[in-house]
Amino acid sequence: MQFGFNLPISGPMSAPEVMARLATEAEALGYDYLTLTDHLILPDANAPGYPYSESGEFYGSGPTNRHELLAATAWVAAKTSRIRLVTAVLVVPHRPAVLAAKTLASIDVLSGGRLVVGIGAGWLKAEFDAAVTTPFAERGAVTDEYLDAFRALWTESSPRFEGKYVHVAGGLVFEPKPVQKPHPPIWVGGESGPSMRRAARVGDAWYPIGSNNSHLLDTLPRLQAGIVRMRKLTEAAGRDPARMQVVYRVKRYGSVVPAKASDGERRLFSGTDADVLADLRNLREIGVTGLDFDFEWTGGADAALAEMRRFREAVLARV
User: Is pTM beyond 0.90 here?
Assistant: First the structure.
């Protein structure tokens, strides 16, 4: 089981010197990967609408003051040497397919093959209206086609692609290819039916968040049922379900998490360190291969790193 953490690229902790310190010290502590989030332009972050919190508000302060995901990923790659870099998640329709494929390939090459391409279709219509040229209502179809174009560009010696949204004529050169073969791992985020079918079709891992209010996976029975469904969808897509990894994103843990979920079961990652440790062991038993955590960043870098160190020693090292 691998463990990661979310590196803040927004808010007061996104100053370059703080980001560099968090990334390098977490790497030294032995975290396997770090994640970086994706938004280009946001409305008033205090207005309800965020799908992954009970209140509908963003976690943390200053979410609208943020760096662009791929630029930040390349910058962090240059500051680190071992830790893997996960886009969590790249909103695929945000960027033209060929440009995104090229930037991702470049990051994989420049980082020595440390990139993981976490992807999603996006959820914020106001952001799409301002930044994206394809229709918000077609974001799922756009995401599927762009992913197919990514894989063609990354793997074919003379790529050609003809779709509704992407057109790559023959005779063009796309080099260098990614270091990782056949391409960087693709972790498909999302908990809805279309997202899960997308993961089943092209994903190396399903990458859900447990706290999506519309598709909760916040208890052991709910998550276990989700994994069973994911395996069935993968088999139906003609792929080996045993090869589908499951990586789970934890937005909050400990005493700040309400103890009981709406299905009457204990909410995952609520309670004491012992409770969290038991959850980690249970998730490993049901097939979860990796987890990443959003640590509390409001206390500054010293406090955040102290908690990352404590949590690794008291909980993660004992799994």
Answer: yes
